[in-house]
Amino acid sequence: MSDALANFTCLDELTQVIYQSFYKFVVLSTVTDDKWNVHVGLAGREGRWWHGCWTEEDVHRIFGSRSSDKLLESFAEKLAEVFVQGELCISDWSTEKGANIKFTLGPTSKKPMHVPMVEMSAEDAAAHATSVFIDIALQAQSRKCKLYPSSSVEYSGVPSSSSRTVRPLGTTGPEPMEVDSSSKPKSSAGLSAKDIITRKNASQEQAKKSVNRRSGSPADASTVRPHKGASLANPNKKARKYQAIEFESDDE
Please, what are the domains in the chain? Predict the structure, then answer.
């Protein structure tokens, strides 16, 4: 690539649509080693195409042969900005064959830039259109051969609606916590018959213990029977033996 055109890479692979009167044009901008190429196609049944270019000599004719790379790069970036913003038109437009038309960038600026255009033959126009479609097909291979990039965006890691907690609008309280399914109590429907019997027995045993605590232990509630010969006042001691007192009668 020539030194001057090396600063024009920002104009490579640009495309734009021009609406002028009731005509519609498509513009393709490409940069090769020795040219900045512009192709203009007219929408309609005729399928007419025009081609124009700037060479290194054209750039030197505008800026001089000693122009710096910084100046040329800044100029090319301004052209690319004008192109993207759609500040374009077809000057000296005519439907006549062989008419001298121009592709103009910045038509309302103080110093618009012009690229002279020459109409292409039907064969050259068809060959160029085929080349463009080949480039489109090659680029589409990276997106599963879709002609246009998909506008939908896929998100990863977004919880589904079943796992998200819906809060009413206007609430300012803290976010409700999600309860782990492993910590939730299991229903009896999910237990086996053995587990149900075990839990039932445990519940009955617990109920018995609660009743005993309220009414006292069986050992405390029962009456201790004294052993034979024990004192009624103190069961731990033997009962005293009493001898009957005999009184003498008055007759004696």
Answer: 5-120 (2.170.210)
